[in-house]
Amino acid sequence: MSASSSKFSTTGRSRTGEPLVWLTAVGLTIGVLLSVGLIGLVMYKGFESFWPARLVVVEVRQEGGENSKVAGYLVQERSKRTLEGLVEEEIQLFRGNRELFGEKFVFLDREAIVSQTEEEDLILVERLEGGNVIGRAKALELGGSETLEASAEGFDEKLDELTERGEELRDELREIEKIKIGENSKRVKELRWLEKKGSSPERAEELAGLLAEYEKLDGQRKELREQLEESTFVVEAMDGRELKIPTGELLHVFAANQVGFFGRLKETIRRAWTFVSTDPREANTEGGVYPAIFGTVVMTLVMSLFVTPFGVMAAIYLREYAKQGPLVKAVRISVNNLAGVPSIVFGVFGLAFFIYFLGGVVDDWFFSNSEEPVYKSGGILWASLTLALLTVPVVIVATEEALASVPRGVREAALACGASKWQAIQRVVLPASLPGILTGVILAMARGAGEVAPLMLVGVVKSAPDLPIDAVAPFVHPERQFMHLGFHIYDLGFQSPDSEAAKPMVFATTLLLISIVVVMNLTAIIIRNRLRKKYAVSSF
Amino acid sequence: MTHIIRIGGLAVILAVFGIFFFILKEIIPLFSKAEVVAESVAKTGTSPKVIGVDEWGERPFLYSGGSEIVVLAGEEGARQAVEVPSLAGVEVTAVSYDPVHHRVAVGLADGRVGSFVVKYESVFREGEPRKVDVSVEEEPWYELEAGSGAVRSVSYGDGGSKRLISVVRDEGVAVVQLAQKRSLIGAGKLTRVGETDLSERIRTEVISTVASQNGQAVLMATADGQVHYFLMDAGALDEVQTFQPFEGKPPKRMDYLFGGVSVAMTDESGQQRVFSLFRPEGSNTRLFGQTKEFGPVGEGTPVFASSLRNKSFLCGAGGGLAVRHLTSGATRWEGTAEFEPVAVTIDGKAENFFLAGAEGQVQRFSLHDPHPESGWRAFFGKVWYEGGSEPVHQWQSTGGSDDFEPKLSLVPLIIGSLKGTFYALLFSIPIALLAAVFSAAFLPPAMKRVVKPAMEIMASLPSVVLGFLAGIWLAPLIEDKVPSILLTCLVLPTVALLFGAGWSRVPIQVRHRFEHGREWIVLLPLVLIGGWLAWSLGPVIEKWFFVYTDPSTGKAIADFRLWWPQATGLSFDQRNSLVVGFAMGFAVIPVIFTIAEDALSNVPRTLTAAAAALGASRWQVVRTIFIPVASPGIFSALMIGFGRAVGETMIVVMATGNTPVKEWNIFSGMRTLSANIAVELPEAAPGSTHYRTLFLGALVLFLLTFVLNGVAEVLRQRLREKNKLV
């Protein structure tokens, strides 16, 4: 090419500033990479937390002594720079067996590792308390002096049987402790409270009856507990020490090194199912997040119950009834702005208005007999209302847009046929704008499900003993505190005493929350795109 | 139905705006003055020297120097006299009162000093309202060895196990040291440990003295206006400092304020200068320095009483009265009394104060001042807190001890919010705007349908997830990789520019085979390779530029974490603003991208096509048409992004150390307004100053984002209308 054509091209468009075009392209590249990378990271880490790792035996050189062996699974490898400028390579191993070692995790210096082998007979035992156990199955001590060695015939079947039996017993125990004894002591407390104000013979009689029943239940409870501890599963750790686990506490025994890919996949699915369907254990670092899922879903649904009718009503008013002018324009801009007000501000309002003010009024009117505040403390109802306020602008804006996009002709046709204004709205405009309204509601729900900051002020807790909806009358408890997936992440990651042990749980919870929110958002985006197409045709 | 819609719609809109007013309602009490209501006057006929009252403000007593105290009983104006037997037949020449222990210290004409304590006991009897019983507990007398003549001024400093009685006599000045042994059974015996004769050490005539409430220090005011400050050190009284509160004249009163760190010096007009103990710069000992000054209230004998709850105090001279607050330096209330008070006192709950006149009148005033420490200056101005060596902006809402004073400046929090926002925008604006320009100007529609949602989905990520990833995953990851990050930030745009420059040199025949709008895909591998290279070259850069030399061993270590504090004098935290900037950037990028992209996409095609037809290059169209026409939209995108970052809570809570600092260092943390609310509001007592101040923080956030978004929205609407016309 000649020098002149580099300034002015006759064969194509000028290329002045072409490098800058590429600069803008790199912005998009990085943006997309960040977005995809972030979601990928969460998915990878989340799945990783369910995927069963192989168990290894690591032989470590000890200074001035014999080499020691430790069994476990690899958590991470890292090279750390110390402040002295040295690089240390180390691996982190989960070795479990808290009674024996104290710490469940251990860092091993790369240089001190002599060998690393996968041994066939290693097992990973999940139990109710004390964290996982890693070692070799040794024996089953059945009640009395009967012992079944691990090498004996039918050992695995017996172990499975005892594990299942343990689960049944625990269910029975829970039924007695939580429901029967719970109801009993609640009534006893009520009666004692009334007794303080003035006694009556009927009450004293009822109280005596309840106390006798309690004795009986307590006896049953003790009996069940004994049964749970009747037989024990003996596991041998690598250093020869034994761990005795009552079979009533066994949850699952997994021979990690004996199964193939599909076996591990099956285990992954089992773990994922346990994660979503059971209660948390060990200060939330083990078990599942069922109550948090339940809390999140109930809160979001209750929120949408409030936000949908009110948001739609406000939008219809603004678009169809209010006289369009500067005032309505100002109101519209303000409603729009509210969507950008920080969520914590809504939390502050919720705390002051719903809990301290409304809650106080409700307590004064209906619960003046109660010792503790009922509605004057955080609860799922107040949390839902707070989030409803937070998300109502989303619904208003989306609904308004949907109403505005209904072609004028359709509306006028309805009016020309003699429909009243409300009839036209109800029969024609609303059905036509339904997908748009739905989009708004879904977006609001997605926003509500992911918000944590305001909830911290209005009733979310790290561990709620009871669900907001359960089998105890009156079945729905809007005043109860609740667990929430988002808060669970915060609490596990930053408030947990054993943050290392909590990490897989946090990543799993994160994956779950993101899946819920992203699926909701994608649904909304798809509905919106369909809607656009539909009216893109009809409005011309 | 129409009506229901109308009412419902209006109600929702009103409810939404109710938020603002409800928050405002919680804040207003912070800015109101103290309410003082004068109540009836009771007559006792005794001319009091001191007045004291119980904690509940029910039964004030008067002592006039005789051998009894007069106790007023409730509202009826009934009186009750309680004998103090050991005072019978002696001549009292000096009296002072310590409201903390209800102790009256007495100096006699024969030079002896002593004290008695007025005991208040609340008695509950079945079916009767609570009653307060009054009795007197006498304490030992002490003969002084030093000086001669009558006692002119006496002060009893009770620090529990260590106590002082400072005495000024006609001739000579002395301090008696007492000690009480603590034993398991209770308070041990009070013994006299020694006496220090200060007559030789102060050359000029001493007129008044006050002992500190911890029994460790004594102040002596001399006739020439000097105040001598003595401190107990290893059993001996040392003179630490001499200062002059008022030029050339002695203070009329010296009174310790609640906490025992500050002394209010009052002259005859009620003008006050408050001196507090603090370490001046370069000094190791705490000395008195003037921190506050209050104007006169009247003309006459000054009276003074300090609150036992906070740093408020009541002072008066002549008939003028004022309730003032030390820390905020504000006068909470001003008024005039019906008679000239000779003694005043405040009850333990700071809900009542009492005036006693020369003819024995006693008047109760109820005082309601729940938030004395608040005010514009406390929230936004520099405040000289007790113990500090200069006025500062500081946020520290809770502390360990009873006399802890909350420091409620919002300035460090606002700066923290702006700092986090600044670094977030620094990271996100370039990426979001470049991406928006490319997407609007060059991306083929088919590709846009996929790429745009991919960017927008980032907006739906809950901030708790971003915060968690930043705090747990990102912060440790980039802690020792700062040079790598710096290098990556330089390399990526350079790679794109160079590649673009190189590409434009390629013959047109080759370039034509490549469809426009795919540049970003071509760059994908380049960005990955460039990023990886820069990331791994980081340590090399570190070895070249960021070498720290250990001052003690002289060893050179290539570590940015050590180099930064040495080179700049600023700190380096693991959870720092860089991490927050990245995490919050993720939240802000999609917001800015979406709005800016919309604005750029709505630029009328007629304009861009015209420019292209006139021979403008692709970039020239962007520079001369797209950006200028859409600039209001881009600007509003930036403002909405700003609003999003300012109010972000969870990311900041999780990814910083949450220390309220007032600095812009990128490698230190911060505490933002929103994080502060999330962390502290659940613990704050409803209705307290702390609670309301947090509401004020919320209001600041609300207004800030509301106004920003409002301006942005108006700009966007204007733009939309303008583009319609074209």
From TrEMBL, chain A:
Family: Belongs to the binding-protein-dependent transport system permease family. CysTW subfamily.
Pfam families in alphabetical order: BPD_transp_1
Main location: membrane
Gene it is expressed from: pstA
UniProt-recorded name of the protein: Phosphate transport system permease protein PstA
SUPFAM superfamilies: MetI-like
GO cellular component entries: plasma membrane
Key words of the record: Cell membrane, Coiled coil, Membrane, Transmembrane, Transmembrane helix, Transport
Stretches that traverse the bilayer: 20-44, 289-318, 338-359, 379-398, 428-446, 505-527
GO molecular function: phosphate transmembrane transporter activity
Keyword Membrane set for record: yes
TrEMBL record, chain B:
Alphabetical GO biological process terms: transmembrane transport
Domain ABC transmembrane type-1: 414-712
Keyword Transmembrane helix part of the UniProt annotation: yes
GO cellular component annotations of the record: plasma membrane
Main location: membrane
Subcellular location: Cell membrane
Membrane topology classification: Multi-pass membrane protein
Transmembrane segments: 7-24, 422-443, 455-478, 484-508, 520-541, 578-600, 621-642, 694-715
InterPro entries in alphabetical order: MetI-like, MetI-like_sf, WD40/YVTN_repeat-like_dom_sf
UniProt KW Transmembrane keyword: yes
Keywords: Membrane, Transmembrane, Transmembrane helix, Transport
Similarity comment: family membership: Belongs to the binding-protein-dependent transport system permease family.
Name this polypeptide is given: ABC transporter permease subunit
Upper lineage: Bacteria, Pseudomonadati, Verrucomicrobiota, Verrucomicrobiia, Verrucomicrobiales
